[in-house]
Design a protein that fits this description.
The chain is mainly α and 128 residues long. It has a domain at 29-101. Helix content is 55%, strand content 0%. It is built from two helices and no strands. It has helices at 29-94, 124-127. The longest helix is centred in the middle third of the chain and has 66 residues, at 29-94. The radius of gyration is 46 Å and the shape is rod-shaped. The protein starts with 28 loop residues before the first helix and ends with a helix. The chain crosses the membrane at residues 31-49. It comes from Lipomyces tetrasporus. Complex I functions in the transfer of electrons from NADH to the respiratory chain. Accessory subunit of the mitochondrial membrane respiratory chain NADH dehydrogenase (Complex I), that is believed not to be involved in catalysis.
Length: 128
């Protein structure tokens, strides 16, 4: 019986694959970095536009309030005068039995103008 030795095939064996054979996933990192930079740049551009609009709206709101101050002050002055006359009328009604009482005379005698203070209390009789 003849023995034959196991030999490699003619032309040799195929090369042994020793590296990982993974498919490439996605782009190169530099492309991702460029995309991220472009998105950030776009976001900062939109943020600057939004901040500019907000600043303009705040300026417009401030000027609107500044221009409304005289009207609001006139309303407050009219309300103060109305309350002052109502207080004098109430004072006349309360002090009608005292002939030496001067209606509307200031309580303080220091010569300075004191802004009237009004406190609105609820009616205690109807609250019971």
């Amino acid at each position: 019986m003849s023995t034959s030795q196991d030999l490699p095939p003619k032309g040799g064996y195929d090369a042994i694959q020793w590296r990982r054979n993974l498919p490439s996933r996605g782009f190169r990192p530099s492309i991702y970095l460029g995309i991220m930079g472009a998105v950030s740049l776009f976001g900062f551009w939109r943020l600057s536009i939004a901040m500019r609009v907000a600043r303009e709206e705040k300026r417009e709101k401030t000027w609107a309030r500044i221009h409304l101050v005289p009207l609001l002050q006139a309303e407050a002055d009219r309300d103060t005068v109305r309350r002052h006359y109502a207080t004098i009328e109430r004072e006349k009604a309360i002090m009608k039995d005292h002939p030496d009482w001067a209606d509307g005379k200031p309580v303080y005698h220091d010569g300075r103008l004191h802004a009237p203070t009004f406190v609105i209390l609820e009616d205690t009789k109807s609250a019971r």
